[in-house]
From TrEMBL, chain A:
GO terms under cellular component: plasma membrane
Domain ABC transmembrane type-1: 91-281
Protein name: Carbohydrate ABC transporter membrane protein 2, CUT1 family
Source domain of life: Bacteria
Record's bilayer topology term: Multi-pass membrane protein
Any single biological process term in GO: transmembrane transport
Localisation per UniProt entry: Cell membrane
Keyword set, alphabetical order: Cell membrane, Membrane, Transmembrane, Transmembrane helix, Transport
Stated family: Belongs to the binding-protein-dependent transport system permease family.
Pfam families: BPD_transp_1
Record-linked InterPro entries: MetI-like (IPR000515), MetI-like_sf (IPR035906)
Residue spans crossing the bilayer: 30-51, 91-114, 126-147, 159-180, 201-223, 260-281
UniProtKB/TrEMBL annotation, chain B:
Record localization: Cell membrane
Coiled coil feature spans: none
Species, as recorded: Streptomyces lincolnensis
Protein name stated in the entry: Carbohydrate ABC transporter membrane protein 1, CUT1 family
CDD domains: TM_PBP2
Entry's transmembrane regions: 42-67, 109-130, 139-160, 191-214, 245-264, 301-321
Amino acid sequence: MSTLSTLRRPQPGTDRALRRRRIRQNWGRPWLYIPLVGALLLMIAPFLWMLSGSFKPEADIRRVPPVLIPTAPTTANYGELFSTLDFTSMFANSVIVAVAVTAGNLIFCSMLGYALAKLEFRGQRAVFLLVMGTLMIPGLVTFVPLYVLVANMQLTGSLLGLILPFLATPFGVFLMRQFISTLPDELIDAARVDGCRELAIFAKIILPLTKPALATLGIITFLGSWNNFLWPLVVAQNESQYTLPVGLALASSGQSFTRFGILLAGAMVVLLPVMIVFLLFQRQFVAGIATTGLK
Amino acid sequence: MSTKTLPERGDTHEQGTAGPQQNTGRRRFAVRGTARGRQARAAWLLAAPFLALFAAFMLLPVVWSLLMGLTDTKSADLRTPLNVSFVGFDNYVRLFEDPQFFTALRNTAVFVLVALPLTLAAGLAAAVALDRGIRRFRAVFRVGFYLPVITSIVAVAVVWKTVLEPRAGLANLVLGWFGIDGPAWLADTRFALPVMIVMAVWRNLGTVMIIMLAGLQSVPQSLMEAAELDGAGPWQRFWRVTFPLLRPALLLTAVTTGIGYLQFFDEPFVMTDGGPLDSTLSATLYAYKQFGNGNYEMASAAGYVIFVLIVALTVLQFRVLRDKD
């Protein structure tokens, strides 16, 4: 397309200049691809290593120096993962926790985000400052009392203990408030004039318009919960509550470390769902990060 | 925050001399049934579920933790957290008398001071290269650079652990191609922390890149052309036009990445347990170990020390990076 318009326009200069210009329009600065491809290889090398390692038979794993491409690719590592480590129930736990936490954040954070962005009420500023102020508090500050609290609520033996503390997070409020405040006030005023009730305005007008931000928050929260490690490690008391990262970490610290074909297969299983989620929603994700990042 | 006055039902008087006073009066005595009262009630209804969870699982633990850091919990068990004796700042004194805590603080400081600028620079460089330099395969590069961000830290740690395995790992295999006899990496006190710095940059530069890319795309092309016409070279254009416009985005990523880096925990926990010889022991890992040993008050005190460091770093970043005007 751009090539055609370049050709049609009368060009000053020689054929060589013309060709250089055309390359530039199609590719940008060609020499930049060399360092970028090098950097890209560095970035994905561990993933390629993981992929190849997960299909390596035991003999290849013990080989020194190591081989990059498995001599006889096998799925035995994956099989063993699910038979000996009970990855099926860990996978289910991870999904349940991540979905519940994501749903909670979408609902509660958008509600408060709307109130802070568009409604006027006494104490609004105090609520905003209080919620935002906790963004800087490290997880470890609340960690110990949170553990005591959850233990006293008798929740350490159930998945609820993994879910409850993360259902409503300040970051979600920040993100939703930022986004909702960019929506025009006139929309809400018009609905009020038409006699729409306050809560209905939120449900019927704001929520549908907030979809891009909800998608972003949903992906971020899902990824965060899926990858969360420390809290489930401490709260989960028996194997029936382990999430994938916990199972993987405990497997890697035990004696089975020498068999890293299984560990790499485990890492693949942990990574695949988030990769799929990310690739599917990449556009919303990037757009959402951009809107929050630049305000 | 919206500070706009909304039209109220029955608010029909014209903007006259008496208007403003009536308005203030109405604002002060907002009651049930008025538009403002309805709005406030709706707002609190919407806020209530979040605030309830927030109070229980955030505010309560924060205050509790602060109190815990000032008490001796040795006598009490977890089920009776209030049965403790108040000891003032004794725990903090003990904390700073512990040479291991200093080691942890020093490691954390080295980690943050090296990894944070490197992450910001690498992310910014990647964004500029992708934005201005190339046209083809931009999405491939973007996804590739962002992939480590979305990967579970445990999976990352496991993979790197096998990559860095001295005999059968990828790192020393590649070094071997160049005739270099690679070190023992994580088992070597000289290499363990630097390896984790590299891992952190590798893992986090994608976030900086994505936000910077969005920032770069909002730089108006006309501004760049105008600067070019005025004779500004590429470097000048970057530092005088692009960089100032990126500053808010850079501040945001610097602050959030800095907060994360000061809580550096997962990699040493999974990969080295703070070793060898405490060379990768971070402040957070120290606190966690105190927790594991039943010293809850020491863990809380250490948590608050990290909190103070986070506030200090954030304030510093706002000083350095905020818009000068």
